[in-house]
Amino acid sequence: MPNSVTEPDPRRWKALTFIAIAQLMVVLDATIVNIALPSAQADLDISNGNRQWVITAYALAFGGLLLFGGRIADLWGRKNTFVTGLLGFAGASALGGAATEPWMMFGARGLQGAFGALLAPAALSILAVMFTESKERAKAFGIYGAIAGGGGAVGLILGGVLTEYMDWRWTFFVNIPFAIVAALGAFAVIHEPAEARNRSSLDIPGVVLSTLGLVSLVYGFTRAESEGWSDTGTIVMFVASAVLLAAFVFTESKVRAPLLPLRVLLDRNRGGIYLSMGLAIIAMFGLFLFLTYYLQVVKGYSPVKTGLAFLPMITGMIVGSTQIGARLMTRVPARLLMGPGFLVASTGMLMLTQLELDTSYAGLILPAQLLLGLGMGTAFMPAMSLATIGVNPKDAGVASAMVNTSQQVGGAIGTALLNTIAASATTSYVSDHMAQAGASKQGQQLVTLQGMVEGYTTAIWWAVGILLVAALIAFTFINAGGKTAGPAAAGGAGRGDSDEEPVLVAMH
């Protein structure tokens, strides 16, 4: 059969524009609601015990359904899945913005997560299909990686502006124009090769086991944050997750057309990427939470000022991704970008362990954020590109979904794990020092704030360790990339379902 990927798709850069818009919408939606949450909670009369569901419903649906969404993209077509996900996301956002009862808000957030789980893996796999030349692919994934990394911080800024100057409902309504523009553009310009479609049947047991297993895992960590690690319900969730995911792996090794072919996971490069990215996201999501609270509660910043204070991290991510990662990815092995990237980020994180009540923003927080952003941007760029490398084209959607799964599950784990560590350190500090404050209200308030900072820095030390482990995994497992490899390998597109069939690009 002749080579099926001879000429690059002439509309690929236009397609990237609309994919970038969609990716920005999904990523910023993970954080934009955080800043609006106090206003929404007061408006809808959501109890303190239930307010976490505004965040958790999104994370549960997104994290739990991503593998299913990735396989749907492979079976039904990436373009169809992408456009459907966008329109569904717009509808769910309209419902959230119009919510008059807590259940409407929770339901809308769950629907946003479900449709996000359709469009996110479809977006990444469309890039893998459309960009076949290694240098262009590096540039495209650099842009995508910068958005994936910096979108959360953009969400904090946008959330602050919309909440402070308009209304919390606009943190939902703002998604609608994003989604409509991206859907119309994608419909017009995205084209995927017919041979990249997976015609096999859907693995229903795999869908059920993976979804329930991931939902149990994410909910277990979320519950640990609110109820504690020794709570019976928390333990039950973790045990259920372990049993369900073990059953999922066993099922996938036996069925003819698995939801997640184990070869996708067992490749050392992809396995190393999923694991190191998941760990890095654990560290990053915890930091977003702590810095937001530190700046607002300890330093007294407004929502808008807090959002703007994250700009150095966004800048660092964009520079790291598009200027360092994208330029070096075709010349340097991926581990020599990802490993040092995580080490640079851990240096920035290490600086933040020195936070005090009166820490200077310009003297410590700004340079620390720049290092974090540069490191993460440099590391994420090759990770996004290599996540689908060497995989059968018919599995590109599910391989892409694993990137998003590692990010979503990592985010949920990071928020719960590091928040629990911080809360424990704060409680310990306050109980040890409150007696010294005496009856003075000012003294008690000072001890409380000092305790919060103590909690944040304790958890940030853990984040430093997690980033160092991510760097070690990147150095150890990942051996793809760099100038040693040959050009794009696309000649096997028509040779059936061999596990070794080359995907659209070989090692860069």
Automatic annotation (TrEMBL):
CDD domains: MFS_MMR_MDR_like. One of its GO terms (molecular function) is transmembrane transporter activity. InterPro entries: EmrB-like, MFS, MFS_dom, MFS_trans_sf, Sugar_transporter_CS. It is a multi-pass membrane protein. Its main location: membrane. GO terms for cellular component: plasma membrane. GO terms for biological process: response to antibiotic. Residues 15-483 form the Major facilitator superfamily (MFS) profile domain. This is MFS transporter. The lineage of its organism: Bacteria, Bacillati, Actinomycetota, Actinomycetes, Kitasatosporales.
